Amino acid sequence: MTQAPAQPLAARLAAALPPGRFVRLGVAVSGGGDSMALMHLLAAYRADGGPEPVIVSLDHGLRPEAAAEVAGVARAAAVLGLAHSALVWRGWDGRGNLMQAARQARYRLIGEWALGAGLPAVALGHTADDQAETFLMRLARGAGVDGLSAMAPERASDGMLWLRPLLGATRAELRSWLDARGIGWVDDPSNLDATYARIRARNALAALAPLGISAEGVAEVTAHLREVRAALVVQTHAAAMALTRIEAGDVIIDRDGLAALPAEIRRRLLAHALRWIAGAEHGPRGPALAELAQAASAGVPATLHGCLCLPEGGSLRICREAAATAAAVAPGALWDGRWRVTGPTLPGAEVRPLGEAGLRQCPNWRQSGRPRAALLADPAVWRNAELLAAPLAGMGNGWQAEPARESADFLTSLFVH
Questions:
Q1: What share of the chain is helix, strand, coil (3-state, %, to 5)?
Q2: Most buried residue, 11, 54, 98, 354, by CB count within 10 Å?
Q3: Domains of the chain, each with CATH number or no CATH
Q4: What does the pLDDT profile of the chain (417 residues) look like in tens digits?
């Protein structure tokens, strides 16, 4: 294998992580070639003003070799003078999608580790090959522009910033760089297992090579699609500015204005409203959104994604569905990702949805100006079956319900997804 020039990789790293942007940076290293290259490149870049890499590895407990591989990363980090932490996941119960469960656990545990260590971001070793494979998998699922944009160079999720500084480099380029320096890595045998969709996509990409379709080419296409996506987000933000307002945590949309929007912008605005109210990372899929838009145009109530969509004259109110709200919490804690309810100290008090039983005990609920269906999902203070307070339904009794997010967050969060 020939040596790849070092400067292009170093230049990619410096462009993604310019000197001074971060003082310290978490780096997820599995022991595979991509993440090992990232660790060594960052260690070298530190001398040129790059951040201090803080290394973390996760043992998923799925292969007997995993613990030894994590130990190998720890030794390599020590040689470079870098701190290393080892995490363990034993959450696989044999049900569902293994790859998806492992991925979710990986992000959750590493994110929690980084937050606890006071790190502002975590770098991942994804490459142009990962980008191309992700594109093919999403293409097979009929994804739209957002899905086909594949992985972003930077993404904020659950309070952590995730970086992919080598997304433009190929897997072969990184391994060539490692080979030239005598740096070893571990090959996960699951990377040959075609029962996994990603490996099938990898094999398909190799089969497409005679057509001139390469990882670099597909990565370039996804970059173009991300530019298209960014333009669509700007247009959706403009529509949200003109057509929406927030009332007691509900999103109110002008129905005529919504119907006049291009179909893609209308779909995006509705998806964002549903995602924002439900506190979900992802919105519903296209067909369900198309049905929702038709229902809104026809003035028919609809339920989707844990939310109610209620036509009200010239407006569409999107609010939380009571049956989808979160479990009870203690007063002062975040409830349903939307509200914090505070008030007198009362033993046994807990916050849960108002519901029909609670609404019957609120004689002044109509003064709120909101429909009963929306009020049913509002926070209320209960002690067993006794309703103590319903601040949003005219029964305060010394309690206050404060939204966990400012109204402006509805607009600004459009740019996060």
A1: 45, 20, 35
A2: 354
A3: 6-223 (3.40.50.620), 248-320 (no CATH), 327-405 (no CATH)
A4: 334 444 589 999 999 999 999 999 999 999 999 999 999 999 999 999 999 999 999 987 667 788 899 999 999 999 999 999 999 987 666 565 666 777 888 899 999 999 999 999 999 999 999 999 999 999 988 888 988 987 889 998 878 999 999 999 999 999 999 999 999 999 877 777 787 888 899 999 999 999 999 999 998 999 999 999 999 999 999 999 999 999 999 999 999 999 999 999 999 999 999 999 998 877 887 788 889 999 998 999 999 999 999 999 999 999 999 999 999 999 999 999 999 999 999 999 999 999 999 999 999 999 999 999 999 999 999 999 999 999 999 999 999 999 998 888 999 988 775
